[in-house]
Amino acid sequence: MTTFPKVLNSIGVVILAAGKGTRLNCDEVPKVMCELGGKPIVSYIIKVLNDIGFAKEQIMLVVGFKAEKVKEYFGCSVSYAFQSEQLGTAHAALIGIKELPKNIKHVLVIGGDDSAFYKKETIIDFVENHIKEGVKLSLLSAEVNDPTSLGRVVRRGDGQIEIIEKEYLTKEQEKINEISTGTFCFDRFWFEDIYPNMPKLRKLGEYGLPTALAMARNKNEKYQIIKMKNENEWFGINTKEELLKANTRKK
Question: What are the structural domains, with CATH classification, of the chain?
């Protein structure tokens, strides 16, 4: 971990935190503000980023549903971007990226609802590797025991890699255990440049972050998939059962 501190000021973080959390019955607060271990889910990744040394100008929360609840809790300790209409993860990322300081060259995009167990070292190693390799896009993947309802990382024989969303999986691809965590690192200017030409996901009608990887591959741009060393650090919280399980782990 030698490169990272030297270029910390050129790195920004966009945290996706605009979702409603319908399956969690979060009627009064955004999904990321549901309590985990007595604190909002998103508070854990914010603490990790603070421990690394990111300033509030570098941490951009993309808020939407009940945004005032997020701002009320975190105040001026982070920065905010508002997503008035939820048009997908790539759209949310762009909104956050646009609000980052102009000196930011590399952007970590992370979900506010699945990163509560991320370790400081995991974040540093991931971003460090992205910068060192000089790629346009890096994705953090994980091997999980039950990938049901999750997108898969499909590694082809010719060395090409695809992210296949759960809606498009074949029976054979459903057997794959390597999933996309949804945590990306981008060359900021590259992402801003490709977004206007990004197609919507056919079945969802949204702009999804996995499409950025397909665009990098199609343009012969350098990209990479980095597998998480400890898959238990990624934990998606989408249902009341998953929130209960996460709370058990936080005790």
Answer: 8-140+182-225+234-250 (3.90.550.10)
